[in-house]
Amino acid sequence: MDSSSAVEEVNYQEKPKNSGDQTAVKRWLTGAEKDDGEEECDAEAWETLSKSFKEVQSVLDQNRLLIQQVNENHQSKIPDNMVKNVALIQEINGNISKVSSVYSNLSVNFANCVHQRRFKNKNDKLEHADS
Q: Can you tell which superkingdom this protein's organism belongs to (predicted)?
């Protein structure tokens, strides 16, 4: 690796063609070559993924309703409704920030989990080779 580069070189495997096959995707994410009966991906990581996606979906659903209300208020052309839109749009913007934050945290946490699993699998392979 070039000393002027701060990016770590990683040898990534090609992503499985059938991403509907969760076992193949888990193996690709963790760097495991075969299913040896042990849990290949940390259940906590998958739970975090699920929880985060549900949280994001909830916020996006809320934004959809807020946007509908903003549109109705705008179409009514009633001055009081137009004033209400200011607060609604601020809430929409806050929700967008929440979604961005959840995705950012999810990305970092998931990348760390995958990196730890790949490191563990690599070390396990080295230990088996030494035995």
A: Eukaryota
Give the predicted TM-score (pTM) of the model: 0.61
Q: Based on the number of CB atoms within 10 Å of its own CB, is 110 exposed (0-12), middle (13-18) or buried (19 or more)?
A: middle
Instruction: For the chain, state the CA radius of gyration.
Output: 22
Average pLDDT, the chain: 76
In tens, the pLDDT along 91-124 reads: 999 999 999 999 999 888 888 887 887 777 777 7
The mean pLDDT value for 27-34 works out to 52
Supply angle C-alpha 122, 113, 28, rounded to 5.
Answer: 60
By C-alpha distance, which of 51, 31, 53 is closest to 41?
A: 31
25 neighbors 16 (Cβ within 8 angstroms): yes
Both tokens of residue 33? 């070559």
DSSP labels, 5-39: --SPP--PPPPPS-TT-HHHHHHHHHT-SS--SS-
d(CA 49, CA 45): 6
